[in-house]
Predict the structure.
Amino acid sequence: MPRDPVIIVGAGIVGLATAYQLQLARPGARVVVLEKERTLAAHQTGRNSGVIHSGIYYKPGSLKATNCRRGKAMLEGFCREHTVPFDICGKVIVATCEDDLPALERILERGRANGVACERIGPERLRELEPHAAGIAAIRVPEAGIIDYGAVCEALARCITHAGGEVHTGARVTAIDARPGACSDARHATCTVESTLGEHRARLVINCAGLHSDRVAALSTDGAQPLPARIVPFRGEYYELAPAARRLCNNLIYPVPDPRFPFLGVHFTRMLAGGVECGPNAVLALAREGYTWADIEPDDLADTLGYPGFWRMIAQHWRMGLGEMHRSLVKGAFVRALQRLVPAIRAEDLSPAPAGVRAQALAPDGRLVDDFLIRRRGPVIDVLNAPSPAATSALAIGERVAALAA
């Protein structure tokens, strides 16, 4: 009788990269990916800005730092092997005032500690790289790049199926029963997974459900062990530059981020197809898949408002939240944020672009979880927090999860 498969919940880039790495680690292993949507990469993966991150921002030794650096190299190698286009175009992180300089220096120190090729430059060199950017100093990061992560997911899915794995769309997981198996080692317990495609037996379930990762984790627990964090959705809204205004941005222009938050601030991103996106901000989404203010899901909103950690976060960061909402509701405020980096931008240069929603893990004390959060509980592995730079890091995250699955 064939051995029960490993089931992976979620076909974003982390789920698909995990399936791919499992097959590399154990050739012939049975791997099944279940995705509730009809397409791959429907949410976070397919709605991000398509940046290949360098790892410059993250605390040395953190999962984000180590997995971003390794994952970036693995991603570029995978794309070369499977002819997925990408462009290592470089970026600048721009200090627009004296108050930005201490944080800029800390980012430079972190980047060097993480092994990132980066250098501090003055305004003259900045104007050579980005003639329309305004800044008193900047960090140049030549190894940052751009890519279409949806195309990466398509390539991963082809590799998975070619190696004998299965990728099923339209397969929403509704129940997970993690029962003790015949083996006394709980790590070899057997699971039953219920989905809209029927019942599946699995020797291991890996939860890569992104925006719904906490809910999928809750399916396999009796509630005796509370989750270390809950997902709170933050919508990131973008504008796109009109063709005539694309000359204002050569590649990637970022501000110095606020170190209190895991968001990088509104920035300019040249896209692989030639356009330029501006954003994102970070506002509370009223649904886990809420891409506009009109998208309201009462159950999702009740989950957020009923979570004590949410209110503790609000008590700490309400001023930041009001500022983000103002930029969301008033285009002029969004434009002014962009003009700090590129003063020549005008409101008429911007048209709305598709938004994304970030699955941000929030601890019970109101702390925004800043690192990847991955855990194993017997026959279940949960990837509970994998926001940016998870797409860049995905193959390294998958390698790490595959090692946990051994």
About this structure: The longest strand covers residues 350-362. The chain has three domains: 6-47+151-228+370-405, 91-142, 230-252+260-368. Confidence is low (pLDDT under 50) at residues 182-187.
